[in-house]
């Protein structure tokens, strides 16, 4: 791990390893239902082989958490559900064998992939998200909107010393996902990339990881706050999708040679964004599919062939991607922009997210 350049804020709670009898958790009891903050048991005495108990202090809120409770996707989430998959905290208890991966007191992150077998063809090749036995935090496995979470130790990420837990939490899904998506875009330094949703949770980090890779970034989102954020983080051009009348033409004109960008990373849950991207990509361009509206991508076969387009699905990242994404942030090259609220604010956060009001990420302090 590279030496940390920035000095992390230390949270006194990181040192407290005592486990209470009860905790607070945000629980959703039915699909499409509400989230309520309740007292919940802590499973410290039931840890199975390979499991660790993590005292979570912060969790980011991803748009996926909202898709999960709304039942937006073809696979159902467990119910009742404790959502969340950007959890940062400290290991406080270990099941048998878990010490192979973590020790008590380690600063760790819980990501979307809660567990995978590590033995199948996919896992062996570093495609853990595609493991047939993969479990997902905040979907098939209770997640990080709770103060004490049971985790599979082998899938915990280690948070580098130079990074405080609060700033690390948005990186655990949004950061890892877009870091991997930038790799999937196969950009060369100097290439043009469009980030769709550049002012959102994933998008604002994608802008930074892509700029670090030497790309010239064009941001698309809406409103002055997201425009300011996109430009401040490295977009050379910004297009407001609600104001621009001919978005396809505007993106082509914003590209270096007028032929359209080399890649488009869709970090928004908008079906229209996908159709437009296929139109403005240059020949041989790559569409990186990240945002998850329940929709089909309508790609015209003739133009896909004639322009020789690549359409690539990108699903979070593997354990190595996560470590790299965190290390880059610890070195000060990428910074999550977030506002911190309390766990009890989660219902309001979902409402704001639904209405597109959140620039950057919301991080929840799980003690509030
Ligand atoms: P977010 O709500 O924080 O950000 C989405 C942004 O997209 C907002 O800023 C919004 O204004 C913008 N937007 C909406 N419509 C747009 C359009 N037509 N053009 C440009 N911008 C538009 O959401 P998020 O947490 O960043 O998640 C984004 C999507 O990515 C969600 O669908 C989420 O489920 C998905 N996701 C996928 C993966 C994966 O592995 N593929 C991982 C995490 C999240
Ligand atoms: Zn997520």
TrEMBL record:
CDD domains on file: CAD3
UniProt cross-references to InterPro entries, sorted A to Z: ADH-like_C, ADH-like_N, ADH_Zn_CS, ER, GroES-like_sf, NAD(P)-bd_dom_sf
One Gene Ontology term of the molecular function aspect: zinc ion binding
Taxonomy, superkingdom: Eukaryota
Any one Gene Ontology cellular component term annotated for this protein: cytoplasm
EC number: 1.1.1.1
Keywords carried by this UniProt record: Metal-binding, NAD, Oxidoreductase, Zinc
The keyword Zinc is assigned to this record: yes
Needed cofactors: Zn(2+)
Residues covered by the Enoyl reductase (ER) domain: 32-364
Keyword Ligase tagged: no
EC category: oxidoreductase
Family: Belongs to the zinc-containing alcohol dehydrogenase family.
This protein's name: alcohol dehydrogenase
Species for this entry: Meira miltonrushii
Organism taxonomic ancestry: Eukaryota, Fungi, Dikarya, Basidiomycota, Ustilaginomycotina
């Amino acid at each position: 791990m590279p030496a940390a350049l920035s000095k992390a804020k230390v949270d006194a709670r990181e040192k407290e390893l005592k486990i209470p009898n009860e905790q607070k958790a945000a629980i959703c009891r039915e699909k499409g239902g509400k989230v309520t903050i309740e007292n919940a048991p802590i499973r410290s005495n039931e840890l199975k082989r390979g499991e660790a108990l993590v005292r979570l202090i912060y969790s980011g809120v991803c748009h996926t958490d909202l898709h999960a409770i709304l039942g937006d996707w073809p696979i159902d989430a467990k119910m009742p559900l404790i959502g969340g998959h950007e959890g940062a905290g400290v290991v406080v208890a270990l099941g048998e064998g878990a010490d192979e991966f973590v020790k008590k007191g380690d600063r760790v992150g819980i990501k979307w992939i809660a567990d995978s077998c590590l033995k199948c063809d996919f896992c062996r090749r570093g495609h853990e998200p595609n493991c047939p036995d993969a479990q997902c935090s905040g979907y098939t496995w209770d997640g990080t909107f709770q103060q004490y979470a049971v985790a599979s130790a082998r899938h915990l990420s280690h948070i580098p010393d130079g990074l405080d837990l609060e700033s690390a939490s948005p990186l655990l899904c949004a950061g890892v996902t877009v870091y991997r998506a930038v790799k999937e875009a196969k950009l060369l330094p100097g290439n043009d990339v469009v980030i769709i949703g550049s002012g959102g949770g994933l998008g604002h980090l994608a802008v930074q990881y892509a700029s670090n890779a030497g790309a010239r970034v064009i941001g698309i989102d809406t409103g002055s706050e997201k425009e300011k954020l996109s430009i401040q983080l490295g977009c050379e051009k910004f297009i407001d999708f609600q104001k621009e009348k001919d978005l396809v033409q505007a993106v082509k004109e914003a590209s270096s040679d007028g032929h359209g960008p080399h890649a488009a990373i869709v970090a928004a849950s908008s079906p229209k964004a996908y159709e437009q991207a296929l139109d403005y990509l240059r020949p041989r361009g790559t569409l990186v599919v990240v945002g998850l509206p329940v929709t089909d991508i309508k790609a015209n076969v003739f133009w896909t062939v004639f322009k020789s387009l690549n359409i690539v699905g990108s699903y979070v990242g593997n354990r190595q991607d996560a470590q790299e994404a965190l290390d880059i942030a610890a070195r000060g090259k990428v910074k999550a922009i977030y506002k911190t609220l309390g766990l009890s604010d989660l219902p309001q956060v979902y409402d704001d997210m639904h209405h597109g009001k959140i620039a950057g990420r919301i991080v929840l302090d799980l003690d509030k």
